[in-house]
Design goal:
The chain is of the alpha+beta class. It is about 40% helix and about 20% strand. It contains 23 helices and 30 strands. It has a five-stranded antiparallel beta sheet with strand order 2-1-5-4-3. It has a five-stranded antiparallel beta sheet with strand order 13-12-16-15-14. A five-stranded mixed beta sheet has the order 18-20-21-23-22. The radius of gyration is 41 Å and the shape is flat.
Amino acid sequence: MIDPLPAFFSGKSVSRSSRLSLFSERGLAVLVCATALVSAGLIFWVAQSVAIAVGFAGTALTLTALLFYARKLYPPVASAKLDFDWALVRDAADNDDVAIAVTDRAGRLVCANPLHESWFKGPVAPPALPVEGKFVTALTLAGKNAWKDGRSEAKSLKRDSMTFNAEVIRAGRSENHLVWRFRMSVQVDLAGEARRLIEGSAGTRIGEAGMMAVLLSAEGRVLTASPVFVIRAMGSPNSPVEGRDFVTLLDVDSGGTVRFAHEGRAGVPLRLLQIPVYADDPGSPALVLLLDEDGEKAGAGAGVTASVQALLAKLPLGLALADRDGRFLFLNDAFCRAVDVAPGARPVYPGDLVVKEDKAAVADAVRRFALGQAMTGDIAIRLVGQPDEPVALTIAGARGLGDAAVLLSIRDSSEESKLKKQVAQATKMQAVGQLAGGVAHDFNNILTAIIGHCDLMMMRHTPGDSDYDDIQQIKNNSNRAAGLTRQLLAFSRQQTLRPQILQLPDVVSEISNLLKRLMGETVALDVKHGRNLGAVRADPGQLEQVIVNLAVNARDAMPRGGTLTIQTYTVTADEVKKLGSDILPVADYTALSMSDTGSGIPPETLPKIFEPFFTTKEVGRGTGLGLSTVYGIVKQSGGFIFADSKLGQGTSFVIYLPVHQSDGKIVEDVVVKEKPGDLWGSGTILLVEDEDMVRAVAERALTRHGYNVLTAIHGEEALEILNSRTDIDLLVSDVVMPVMDGPTLVKHAREKFPTLPILFMSGYAEEQLRKSLSIQDVGFIPKPFSVQQLAESVRAAMPRGTAAK
């Protein structure tokens, strides 16, 4: 547990009366007398009057005597110093079912117990917990109400597969702290479900099958019972049975035979089967089933009757019966699923289900419950199929079930384990995506400097120079590296898209020659285009990457040759309705289909193909990022992608991109290209960049294009320059910087210069930044960029009349 601040707990100060108790009354009296005599002597020495000195001393001693007399009559109540045992306080908060956190007025975390850190992945201060978005708002409201009313609560907070209820209390000596208490919420009321089944038609059908059911409280009193039980136990269907002591309704003779007390010795012997509703809570309600023995004494049967087996088979709980030697007599399907064995391959002993280290403990527990009294207990075991995840096996002594002596119960946690693995995989992939985005951001800064210096060098060299080809080669390789960073960003869905209004056939035509070279001589390329295709809004470069990635995968699936068919066609909203897809919204789409005649994808592999790092290729030939990159680009472009494959017949990928419309009409693609001569300009630019190499390249590039450039390494230095000058025409700033970042700088700058143009540059995605920025009217240029791209962006951002000479 995080150690709390001592000031939070009362008992910091000590009263004046308790400090006086350090001196004894006798010593204090001597001290007062001595002080009075010394003071009288000083007065006599100054005034040379015995009467004045004696009078002062007498008065002082008289007042002191009166004070001591009053103290005897009215002794002060000493305020006891609270000496907290901090270890005791921590142990009281560190329980296993309540997560506790304490925050102060500023919302900072003061303390939290280990369970809070475990549930919420670290010491996180409420209400900023990793729960679903709308529940953060509910927690925030609960905190405000607690400050106002002293107490509040929020219910059904969702996080992954868990649900919590929160209670918030204003506490502390000055009531300046909030105590947050989180409890796990029980989602399924098994006791309520059992009551509903017993009281409904299911209870009647159980009675028709010769069985009776009763739900008992932890104290053994009847909560509800089936109609047949009420008739047999009370003699009338209308007799009240709820609240009756269950034991008083039965009679047990000397031979151990159980009958209804109302029926007497002439009654039919009964078999009792007790099932706890919550296997992990011994104090929970219990479901008791009663069956007629048909005149036989309990234990006389050989094995388990068919009626008991039929009942246990239908129950959703994992149940099994074993004899006194520990051999299995019966296992229902739920038990087989929970222990991960085939229903037909029944194990002989319970020990066959667990790891070697747990076999002896399981065998001993089964033997102890079989020979002892009828009771229930739990034992933690590790199954052979799940050696790393302990589960609870509930064992109960069984009576009146023939050869069965032990009832075993286990909860089927396969779905829960599956969800845990999915959450762990999603968390891991999210971390990998964040790492990939961070690496790409830093790499983009390096590539910006390399590409920029290449551009500056090429301005001083002509194509005939000896160094020109080497510089061009460096720039080409840098652009290839920039493509790799784009792939990393696409994998993490953080790539910067430059969408345009375009036609899919134009994109396919641009890349057709490259595809023919990629396919080789053994693979034929067949391209077909439909008519009246709607325009789409997408990044043409990213679409080309999607087509190339799918084509390369198709080529690898056809090592002996084949045909790759690329087709574009229109899919209307009516056709989407006929498809009946739950994923594809009803709208007009332009579709791109890529089909091959290769080996196909196995059915068990098809659902995993878009997962990052999943590949079926041998080591060294595939990274597993190709199809995940395709999926990321398509989804970020607002489209959908589906795959269909049959072994030996090939694979088909279909991409649906929504038709772009404006005011009900399709917008044609209009791209205005700047002339090189238009990139020169004038004006003063404030360049803010913490990376020295990027700042140097950008400064030189803008200076060569005619601008007056001022530089700063972070936001605070840039603010000083803005406050000292009034001729700044444009602010070009990086987004992520130390001391003060770009958005904070712009907010302060807009307070003094509300119309100042802003151009952000960053290695992160523009879409991702705009979601987190609340600044209006700002431009953006992604890293890495060339000198020409920087000049184009600056010219577009400069005010009219300033950029052009």
